[in-house]
Structures are given as C-alpha cells and as structure tokens.
Amino acid sequence: MLEFLTKNATVVLERRYLKKDDKGVPVETPADMFRRVAMAVAAGDRKFGADDAQVAETAADFLELMGNGWFLPNSPTLMNAGRRLGQLSACFVLPVGDSIESIFETLKHTAMIHKSGGGTGFSFSRIRPENDRVLSTAGIASGPISFMQVYDTATETVKQGGTRRGANMGILRVDHPDIRKFITCKDDLSILNNFNISVGITSGFMEALAKGESFPLVNPRTGEVVDSVSARALFDRLAHSAWKTGEPGVVFLDRMNAANPTPALGEIEATNPCGEQPLLPYESCTLGSINLSAMLDGGKPDWERLSRAARLAVRFLDNVIEINRYPLPEIEEMTKRTRKIGLGVMGYADMLIGMGLPYDSEQAVEFAGEMMAGIHREAREASQALAKERGNFPAYPGSVHDTPDTPRMRNATVTTIAPTGTISIIAGVSSGIEPLFAVAYTRHVLDGEKLPEVHPLFERIARQSGFYSEALAERILRKGSVQQIGEVPAEVRRLFRTSHDMDPLWHVRVQAAFQRHTDNAVSKTVNFPREATVQDVEQAFLLAHESGCKGITVYRDSCREKQVLSVGGERQPEERAKIQPRPRPLRTRGMTERMRTGCGTLYVTVNSDEKGVCEVFAQMGKTGGCASSQTEATGRLISLALRSGVRPEAIVKQLVGIRCPSPAWQNSKMVLSCPDAVAQVLARCGETGETRGAPSAGVCPDCGNTLEHAEGCLTCRSCGFSKCG
C-alpha cells in the first residue's frame, strides 16, 4: 500500500492535503488521509441500509482502490472528506440573469463556493449588450464584460484567505452583440486573471463559416437581430487571440446539448472552469480518475484490474454525492436530481510508454478509443447496477413504454476526462491524457537547492540500455527534449516525444478519440510551438469540430512571456524598472564559433548554465580599435539582457540583418556585420537545443518552478500549484 508515493508526492500532500494543527504542522500521514477518505465515503452506504460490517467492507475496497494508486478522487474530496468542511465538489455552474439582482445574487453564491474551495462556471450570454437601454433607469447598459470584471475582483478578494484558489469560466455565445470585444478582452494580460474564457460556438455559426456568409448578432434582451458580422472575420479574430494569449477557448454548445441527458431540466449554457464538465445551473461536479499507468501487467493492459477499478470508482463517486456538504441548498437539490459523476483517467502517456506505443501514432489513437470505450462500458454497467440497488436518478427521463428490462441509470452521466494536475503528481504519473510535457524537470527543494529530475520510465530504460549518465540528464534538462540527443537511441526518442515534439493535430486526434466514449467532455490543451501561425490554430479549431470534440483549448509556447505570474497579478511599471540581472554563475558550459566578418575574424562564445544561455563574448582576433571595443560592448549588453530574463530569440531578432559597409561570406552564407555574426551564432545555439529548456507557461508563484499549460490550466509539477484551483 502507498508504494506509489514519491518523495515529491509526499511533500505535496503535506503542504496541501493533510490535516494540520493550529501551527500548520500535519497531524496525519498520507496513510491516515486515505483511510479517512475511504471511511467517510463508505459511510454513504448507510443511507441505503448498510450495517457497520458492510460499511467496513466498502471502506476496505475504497482503501484498496486509492492505496494501490489505482484511482484518486478530485482534490476537494481528498482534502475534506471526513473533516468539518465536508465540501467535496471541485466545480459548479451558476446562472447569470439580465438584472442587477440576478447578477449580484450569483456573485454572492460565487463567493460562498470559492470560500469552500470550489470553482465556478458561468454563461454571461443573457446579459444585454454594452450601450443597450436600461428601461428602469433610462440609462445605458455596461455589458457582460464589465460584470465579469466585478466577478474577477471578488474572486481575487476571496482567494486571499483560502488554501485552494477559486477559478472561473466565462462563456459568451458567438451570436452575442459584444462577442468581438469578448474575444479580445484577455489580450490585456492584466485583467480577468481569475477567469478562463471560451466562446460558445453554435452549429449556425459553423455553417455560415463554411459557406463564407455573414452571421447575425442577437440582443438577448429582445431576441432581435441588431447586427451581422462576417463569420470568417470573427473566426479569424478568435483564432488570432487564441494564438496570441491562449484564450479564448471554444465550446461547441449545440454538440453539448445534443448529449444533454436531461433536456427537460434546461439547456446547457456553461461548463466548469476547465471546460470538461457541461452543467446545468446549480449542478456540481463529482469527479475522479483512474491511474492508467497502474493498469499494466507485463507491458499489456490488465483489463480485469481496470474493470474492478472502474466499477469501484463509480460506487465511490455516487457515495460522494450522498455525503457531500453542499455550499447552497439549490446546488444540493439540483446535483441530487441528476447525480452526474465523471470518471476519468490519468497517466495515459505513461501507459503508452509502458506498452511501447508512441503517443503520436495511429496505434495509440486506436488504443485510446478502445480503452475509453471499455471504461465507459464498465462505468455504465456499474451505474445500472446501483440503480437496481438504490434507484434511478430522480430526473431520469423514463417512458411509459419502459419494461422491467429497460436499462436504468443511477447517474445521468458517468464519464469525464478532467484535469488531474495535482492528483497526478500524488500518483506520480503524467497528467490526464496529455503527452509528456518534458523528459526532465528542475525540482526546487529546501534552501534554494535545485535538483534535476528525469522521468522515471526514461531513466529506467536508459539504465537498462546502458546509456544513462548524469551528464545526459543535465543535457536533457537544458533541452527539455531528447529528440536532438544523438546518444539516445532512435526508438527511445520516438517513445519519449513531448507535447512540443509532435504535430499539434495529434493532440486533437487523441482528444477526439477519448471524446467519442465520454459522456461529458475532455479537458486537454493543444500545445503549439512558438513559431506556429494563426492558420495553425484555425486548423486545430476546425479539426476539433469535424472530429466530434465538445470544445478545444490551445496554447502557443511563450505566448504570454511578458506576463509575470504572481498571486497579486502583474508587476507594476515601477517594479519592472527595478529588474536586476541574476549574478553570473560560478560555472558555465558553452561553445566558441569562428566567424568571418568584413572587419576581420570574430570569435563568438555562447555560454549556458542550468537556466539556459547566460552570456555571450565576442572578440576580434588580433584586431584592436573601435571594432574590438564595440564587439566587446555588444557581448556585455547581450549578457546583461540574458541574465535579466530576455529570451535569446528576442536578442537575435534585434541584431540579425544589421549591415556594415564590408559584408563577408562564410559557408555560402553572407555575414552582414559583427552584430549579425553574433546573432547567427546565438540563433544556431537555439537550433541545437543547447539554450532552450522545456517550454514554459510562466513561473510558479509558490515555488518558482516552471508552469505547464496542460488540461486547460496552468499547473506546477513541482509543488502542485494550480491556477484552476
């Protein structure tokens, strides 16, 4: 039991999950935590007539499920089951009406949910557009985005006192008159930092886009068409903003409603903060994930173990609905009417590595569909068995033509691919269905020490094959990938392709394969390289729609490089003026390249440390005078910029192409000047990967490690921080 827990997982549990005394010292062990959760959730059986012995048996099953690392529930359940707070749901959807009363009543409910550790999703599509009439006061409406900013400020205030940050999803229909402003509202990275935003795309819009037609914009207050816009122009704007900042995402509203199991209760307008759980107003999520990495036996799927894990997990999640202490009575009522649960997975990339299947391969996509179909089948059968034992969910859409053999369901939905950012760290596996983000990380430990951490499966294969070394680990850490490391065998490189080593469309294909066998939706990020184009993003959006996805989130590497991530928001101008370069490291590694210039032979040295390129020296052979002093000055200023956090690519862009009166040729390529020569060398260092580590979505505000943009959220693999709560 608990053999899967790594040292880092234990640190994360102690920091964020275990019960603590008044001084913040943990008063339970990880084993105590799992026992607490198992006993609390098993107690749900009592509501259906179970005695003490039966409850104890269920608790033992649940402890086996979690203690072996086969399954983990969402974070609030691990944190709060069996404790005073008792709020076990991760996320909620609340209605937002077109009145001040409705808007601020929902804001009050949002604060209560965030206080309890949950996240919230909203559709702002019912709010009248900016500059529309307000009949009661003869005034002018401020529009949905202004109220989103109010919600954002409230979230920022509430989260200061909590251990789990509140997060929001804001959705606006594509036919809302303010949609153009909404699409670009997060181009300003200083606002709405507590919101993910998505555009609610309709089938009508996609038809207009395909035909090259205009698309009507409708005032939600009157139902009247008030404007029209080129569908192509709006789609281009959407793709450009997503390319620029990673937002908005897209949700396909009509597709979500086609799969709505209880249409009589209302239309689905919104999702939870990461987009994987479409919910009706006042519904909540009850989520958990199977660890696929633990479902292997000798490199092959153990279908019997997977079946047992899925069936036990469904019973676990149904019990959570019973014992949960909901933050609002409306939420308890609605959640128990539909009893939606979302069983998902994590460790998919690790499972593929264990099977010897590359993530970006036809075999892996086919296997994803086959495996998820099996999980979905087992989950449905488990829910049907519970329905016979406990009854259907109350809003079950039964028919007078039903017979005793008609399948019943305890839960309106049973499967969801949810983010597993922190629980996958606890399980020690890859996040959700994402590919590996990097083959090696820098782990920040006590006293500022930094340790390289290589993916355990890579290290095991490398040691077994005899090519592992500490020097290799450091090279992987600097590159963030093994694709350009010659001593790594080709078949191993193929198996350990990271999210940025593959064509982004493979991300979409994998998402679609899982979506075909998932009741709710799939939380996933389609990662793009820095050099991707707006057209690449458009292609991903179109493929997601064509292949049956219910939504899509994209993130282009470093598209938010100017943003400073911190709990308090972005640094102010006066703080940016005080940036100081980090000290020169005691030891560096690098290379020197001889360049022929019109001024003479130039020797350019580029050095790196564990953070990447940190200095450049440029020296003119035996020549003195102005040329020599100017090249030395160029090198010093470049070094200063590098150690102040400026990316090498940005420096190259400024220097490349500068001309002097005497250009030269080297290796069939023109060298226009000494600065141009330095830029060429610096660019080549980047091409070999020596200066570029793993792609980064920013710096963790808690521990300073690299953040990943995966599963529609920002997550730190080092300490468990998640921007989505």
At a glance:
The chain has 725 residues and is α/β, with parallel strands linked by helices.
Describe this structure in words.
- With 725 residues, this protein is an alpha/beta fold.
- It is 39% helix and 17% strand.
- The strands form 10 sheets. It has a 7-stranded mixed beta sheet. A 3-stranded mixed beta sheet has the order 1-13-16, with helices on both faces.
- Residues 562-577 and 687-692 have low confidence and may be disordered.
Low-confidence stretches: 562-577, 687-692
Overall mean pLDDT score? 88
* Tally of contiguous helical segments: 24
The helix content, as a percent range, equals 25-40%
Side-by-side strand order of the widest sheet: 2-3-6-7-10-20-19
Instruction: Note the overall shape.
Output: globular
How much strand? 15-25%
The main β sheet shows up as:
7 strands, mixed
Distance between the termini: 28 Å
Rg over CA atoms: 27 Å
Which structural category fits the helices and strands? alpha/beta
* Number of DSSP strand runs: 27
Write the layout of secondary structure elements.
Blueprint: H1 7-16, H2 30-42, H3 52-67, E1 71-73, H4 75-80, E2 91-93, H5 100-115, E3 119-123, E4 133-134, E5 139-140, H6 144-159, E6 168-173, H7 179-183, E7 195-201, H8 203-211, E8 214-218, E9 225-230, H9 231-245, E10 249-252, H10 253-258, E11 270-271, E12 278-279, E13 287-291, E14 296-297, E15 300-301, H11 303-323, H12 329-338, E16 342-346, H13 348-355, H14 362-390, H15 421-427, E17 440-444, E18 450-454, H16 456-465, H17 470-479, H18 490-495, H19 504-515, E19 525-528, H20 534-546, E20 551-556, H21 573-576, E21 589-597, E22 600-609, E23 612-620, H22 625-643, H23 648-655, E24 664-666, E25 669-671, H24 674-688, E26 707-710, E27 713-716
Parallel strand pairs: 2-3, 3-6, 6-7, 7-10, 13-16, 19-20
Antiparallel strand pairs: 1-13, 4-5, 8-9, 10-20, 11-12, 14-15, 17-18, 21-22, 22-23, 24-25, 26-27
Helix pairs in contact: 1-15, 2-3, 5-6, 9-20, 11-14, 14-19, 19-20, 23-24
